[in-house]
Amino acid sequence: xxVLTIIGARPQFIKxxxxxxxxxxxxxxxxxxxxxxYDAAMSDVFFEELEIPRPxxxxxxxxxxxxxxxxxxxxxxxxxxIEEKPxxxxxxGDTNTTxxxxxxxxxxxxxxxxxxxxxxxxxRKMPEEINRxxxxxxxxxxxxxxxxxVSHLQREGITAGVYQVGDVMVDALLHNRQLAQQSSRVLDxxxxxxxxxxLATWHxxxxxxxxxxxxxxxxxxxxxQQPTVLPLHPRTRQRLEQASLKLxxxxxxxLTPVGYLDMLQLEANASLILTDSGGVQKEAFLLQxxxxxxxxxxxxxxxVEQGANRLVGADSQxxxxxxxxxxxxxxxxxxxxxxxxxxxxxIETLTQQI
Length: 354
Ligand code: UD1
Ligand code: UDP
Fold this sequence. Notes:
Layout: E1 2-7, H1 10-23, E2 28-33, H2 44-49, E3 57-58, H3 66-84, E4 88-92, H4 96-107, E5 112-115, H5 127-138, E6 141-144, H6 147-155, E7 162-164, H7 168-183, H8 186-189, E8 198-200, H9 205-208, H10 211-223, E9 228-231, H11 234-242, E10 252-255, H12 260-269, E11 272-275, H13 278-286, E12 291-293, H14 301-305, E13 309-311, H15 316-325, H16 342-351
Parallel strand pairs: 1-2, 1-4, 2-3, 4-5, 5-6, 6-7, 8-9, 8-11, 9-10, 11-12, 12-13
Helix pairs in contact: 1-7, 1-16, 3-4, 4-5, 7-12, 10-15
Bound molecules: uridine-diphosphate-N-acetylglucosamine and uridine-5'-diphosphate.
Uridine-5'-diphosphate binds at residues 10-11, 14, 201, 203, 231, 257-260, 263, 277-280, 283.
């Protein structure tokens, strides 16, 4: 069986790593990198740390408007698919790379397997929501991380080919947690005391491209009283510069994006995580660190329902208040994201298809 995997953005490297490892034990994988993320700190570092094989094709698409980026990927992926004639195409998550890969395959009648299917924020203004909904509707196999995701698909009439396998990010985390503890020097590097700092991440389009939300989050970060580490996504760095906004709180350690092992170490030892990332909300939950999420809604509703995550939007006062108030009893929190064997289930199901 020949399976063509298409990835291109930071969280997809992390999700694909455990699945790809398992896949290569049972089938032939052709790996395509769209080039959506291209800085070494957004791409190469994950291939090295997670031992992801070198892509067979690097499309080098880079940063563009949504239409141009997705359109160029669609055309380039189509050419690769015609040449490689895979039995299946695998896509991950909800980026423009996900949609372009799924659409190119579906139009050539090549079956698509979607990992992290069924997620919904119910906010159609998010580019990711459009990408998820469309990808799910052209996929033949839909690998859901949770029961909630399965029920979202059911409501949209998608029941065939749906499997609740658990979350592949649990697989990645369990595989790398010990290695991160042993090899990461990030705490010493920045003089951080375990449980003595906040970890923040910030990149979501709605929080960077809306000037009011950008300024409000910057104000909150500038007012934080505790030591705070912020590995900043290049998108946010650019938007702050364009708006002439400065992050000048002496408590703030502003970093370039860090690798996955340093990130796991920073997350596990934080007293609190402040984020607008999807993956980071989940990792906070898994590592039992209270999370404050700077969004108006989340796809990972289970983390909020269980009291481990608070949604605060982008209002600076609301952010600061939640940071002060949040208190989570992790003894009462139930696991919902699976047992770390999602990749195995995905590959078992996929390889039974022919
Ligand atoms: C993308 C995904 C988002 C995901 C995020 C993970 C879409 C629509 N969005 O958002 O769902 O949460 O990746 O990180 O697919 N840039 C660089 N260097 C890079 C990559 C990006 O400087 O290596 C800058 C460019 O100015 C670019 C901007 O970041 O225009 C945004 O990059 P893009 O890939 O379009 O979206 P993300 O915000 O990264
Ligand atoms: N991540 C990382 N370094 C960073 C920021 C994030 O390794 O500087 C990891 C994080 O641990 C998680 C994934 O990247 O596994 C989340 O990606 P991101 O926040 O870019 O995207 P999202 O999950 O919101 O789509």
